[in-house]
Amino acid sequence: MAKVYVFDHPLIQHKLTYIRDKATGTKEFRELVDEVATLMAFEITRDMPLEETEIDTPVSRTKSKILAGKKMGIIPILRAGIGMVDGILKLIPAAKVGHIGLYRDPETLKPIEYYVKLPSDVEERDFIVVDPMLATGGSAVEAINSLKKRGGKHIKFMCLVAAPEGVKALQEAHPDVDIYIAALDEKLNDHGYIVPGLGDAGDRLFGTK
Ligand code: URA
Description:
By secondary structure, the chain is α/β, with parallel strands linked by helices. It has 6 helices and 13 strands. It has one domain: 3-Layer(aba) Sandwich (Rossmann fold). The strands form 3 sheets. Strands 1, 4, 5, 6, 7, 8, 9, 10 and 11 form a 9-stranded mixed beta sheet that branches. Strands 2-3 form a two-stranded antiparallel ribbon. Helix 1 (10-20) runs antiparallel to helix 2. It is globular and about 65 Å long.
């Protein structure tokens, strides 16, 4: 079963409070999401493999650690996932960025894929699929289906706020995909919004309505 990690670092929790606050405007919201994405990237990369190298410091020769060069990919789910990409790239600048776009079929309410563009070497990369909100879990499950269908194997899912319903759906559909969140909220309301949540993440990021 997939593990769920809640990042309760004080800086993440502090910034998340302002992200949630409806008085926070678009510019600040965007900056805060970017900052939290960087902080979450710091935590999510804890298990990156290291290897030993030898260097000369000004004082002596020494063995020291560097990243083993594992190739990474970041996949934002369009459109709100885009708001987290730059923040992650600050820490893993060599990562490739793919995109997965989904819309909800008005009749079946199921997410339908309308855009997929992934790095060509999908099978060699470790992926972080990102979306600020994990609500019903429908989009996350479908985006990861898309990625797996094209060869993606090592996948993590990262979001700011999750509902218990979304966590359960994602765990059931993808027991191999660990979930990294900044907060686990109470529930979904009748309109599919997370409560207390932060509203519509895409609209708040891009200033639309
Ligand atoms: N998507 C959002 O942007 N907000 C929610 O609360 C749920 C889904």
